[in-house]
Task: inverse folding
DNA sequence: AGCAGATGGTCAAGCAAGTTGACTATATGG
DNA sequence: CCATATAGTCAACTTGCTTGACCATCTGCT
C-alpha cells in the first residue's frame, strides 16, 4: 500500500465515524432525547452495572474532571444517578436511570438504522467483517478521535 | 446484526480512527514537525494545487473563519503561503511551501507505518478491503468526527 | 454600463468543552 | 497508625470553534 493510501484510509475512517456519529445523534433527537454524542459513549460504559467517574474518564479518554462535568449534565437531564459506591466510601457509582436506558436503546436503534444502510451498500456480511476487523485493531481503546 | 452491535461498531470506528490519528501525530512530531492533527487533514486538501479558505473549510467541516485561523497558524509556522488567486481578486489561493510538502510526506510515512502494523494483524489484503469499504461508505464526506 | 445580490475573506466577541492545579475525604500497605 | 495513593470536586484558565458584522469583489440581469 502506498503512503498516500494510508493517509486516505485515515480520512475515510474519520469521515465514516463522523457521519455515523452525526446520524446517530440526529436519530436520538428524533426519538425525543436531547444531548450531545458524548452521552452515547458514556452510556455504553455505564450500561451494564454503572461505573465510577474515574472509570468513565478512562473510557472516554478525558480527565476525571471533564467526566465529572459530563455526569453533572447527565444527572441534570435525568439520564443517570450518583449512588454511593458499595465498598468504597470515596467513590460514587454512576448508574443509568430508566430514562437513561431508554435513551441508550434509542441510540442503538439509530445506529442500527445507519448500519442497515451500509448493509445495503456493501452487503450484510461485509459489514460484519468490517466490524470484526475494527474490533481486532482496537479492541478496547478509549473512544476519542478528536483532533 | 443486533442493535447493540451497531453501537459497538461505532465505538470501534472511533477508537480506531482516534488511535490512528494519535499515532500519525506522534510520528509527524518524531520527524521534526510541530502541529496538531488538523494540519494533516488540511494538507490533504491543499496538496495538489492549493485551495481557497472556503474550500478548505468545507473539506474540514468547519466555518470559513475557523479555517482562516488555521491558515494563519500554518502560515506562521511556514507550512503554507497565501497567494493571490488567479481569476478571482477576492479569493486567495493557499498553497503548500516546501516545508509544507515535507510535513505532508512525513504524515504519509507515519500513517503508512501504522497501517503496516494493521497489515500484520489482519493481512495486507484485508486492510485494502477495509480501505475500500470505508471509501464506499463515505466517498468524500467532510472530515470531522468530533462529538 | 451599472446596480442588486451573492460570495470570499477577515475582524471581533462569545461560548463550549476541555485542561491544569489545588483541595478534601477515604482507602491501603508497611 | 501514619504515609502515601486514590476518588471526587471546585475554580481558573486555554483552546478551538461559532455567530455576527463588515468590506471587497464577482456575477447576472436589465
Result:
Amino acid at each position: 500500500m502506498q503512503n498516500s493510501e494510508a493517509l486516505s484510509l485515515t480520512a475515510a475512517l474519520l469521515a465514516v465515524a463522523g457521519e455515523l456519529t452525526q446520524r446517530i445523534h440526529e436519530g436520538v433527537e428524533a426519538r425525543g432525547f436531547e444531548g450531545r454524542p458524548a452521552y452515547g459513549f458514556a452510556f455504553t460504559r455505564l450500561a451494564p452495572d454503572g461505573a465510577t467517574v474515574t472509570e468513565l474518564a478512562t473510557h472516554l479518554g478525558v480527565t476525571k474532571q471533564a467526566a465529572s462535568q459530563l455526569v453533572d449534565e447527565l444527572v441534570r437531564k435525568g439520564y443517570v444517578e450518583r449512588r454511593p459506591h458499595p465498598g468504597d466510601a470515596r467513590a460514587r457509582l454512576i448508574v443509568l436511570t430508566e430514562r437513561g436506558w431508554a435513551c441508550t436503546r434509542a441510540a442503538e436503534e439509530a445506529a442500527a438504522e445507519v448500519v442497515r444502510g451500509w448493509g445495503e451498500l456493501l452487503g450484510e456480511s461485509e459489514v460484519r467483517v468490517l466490524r470484526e476487523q475494527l474490533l481486532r485493531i482496537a479492541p478496547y481503546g478509549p473512544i476519542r478521535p478528536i483532533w
